[in-house]
Structure formats: C-alpha cells, structure tokens
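FORM 7B: Structural annotation worksheet

SECTION A. Query
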Amino acid sequence: MSTFTNPDTITGGAGGVSAGGTGGGGTFTLVAVSAGLSVPSSTRLLADRLAEAVRGPLAERGTEVEVKVVELRELAVPIANHLVTGFPPPQLDEAIRAVTEADGLIAVTPVFTASYSGLFKSFFDLIDPDALSGKPVLIGATGGTARHSLVLEHALRPLFAYLRAVVVPTAVYAASEDWGGSGDPLTDTLPVRIERAGAQLARLMETGTAERRASDGVPVLSFPV
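SECTION B. Predicted structure
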C-alpha cells in the first residue's frame, strides 16, 4: 500500500502508467525502484515508506515532489530481452529514463542468496555506467532474518559506489520481525531508520539538484550535516 499520494508506477503490464516529465520548474522527481516479486510485497512496502519519508520533509519546506515507482517484477521479460538484444522495449526504456533523469533515487531489493536479487542487478546492468554519477541514492533491502542486513554494505553500497552515485549514510534493512514489532532498540526501530534515511536523501536532493541546475553538469556533492 502506498502511503503517499498518487505515485506513478512504471510497469510492463497493461496497468502501467506513463512516467511523465522529469523534475523541472521547481518540482523534484523521486524514483523508487522495487525488485519485490510477490504481491503484496514487503520490498514495495519499504520502497513506499522510504519515498514518503523523503517527500514529507521536502513538502514541509515547500518543495513539490513527483514520486514514481518502478516495479521490476513487471519488467522481468523486457529486462531479459534487452540483455540478449541490446535494445530496450518501450516500457523498459521509459523506466531507465525515469531512473537516470530523477533528482533522487530509492533502490530496494529482497535478499537472495546473501546478496541483491538477479533481477535487481540485471536492471542496473542496463543503465549507462555514467548515468547515475553524482545522483543521490537511498538503498534498502528486505529479508526474512536480520542476519542478512550487511547485504546493504557488502553488496548494494559497493554497486552504487561503482556507479559513482552518492549513497546516503543510512541504509535501511527490514527483516520480517521489523514489520510486526518495535525492532531491535539497539539499532533503532524501523520507523526511526526510515525517517532518518528519508531526511538524508531529501537534503542531498536539495543540495545536488541546486548544484546540477546551476552548473548544468555533474554535481560534486558534499553531505549536509
């Protein structure tokens, strides 16, 4: 269930919604990529919660945020076709453009075999290695047990570091017990981590977007403390 208002969802299915334009005219574009495979999906739920945590602080400061969600589940076949043909089908091309043109990106994957899912990796393999350079990114993952939480640091963060994205300090992992309880008080509860990560991405979007629009080039970001 989405907790923000009317997000566009980019899928390969008949119910997919057009991505629309990019962040211009004072409106930020925030894209959340969800690699969840089930319906309903805890991965999609975490992506929605993170998106709302980013949108909220920006809205409080008077900034409009256009939120789009890319559901990789519905793009699995187009992603496979692109890998073997070298040409993206229209709905996948739309999703790639939405990600590369966004002012901020949220990337959430389920944990498979102690790493990100193959579908998640295949999607980002199709993006130009320079396209995410300097882009603010918030990473998240879901899994059945908290023992896999380091996947954020040994798999996702290095992936986006290789792509020269700017990854926020707080990465959010949600185990099954996080959704039904208060979570581990020693590592903060899930709502606290989501709120902190969302605020960090919001600040980076404000800083990075202003620098990018001023220079019309790749911004060099410094994290606002």
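SECTION C. Observations
Confidence is low (pLDDT under 50) at residues 1-6, 12-25. The longest helix spans residues 190-215.

SECTION D. Sign-off
Analyst initials: ____
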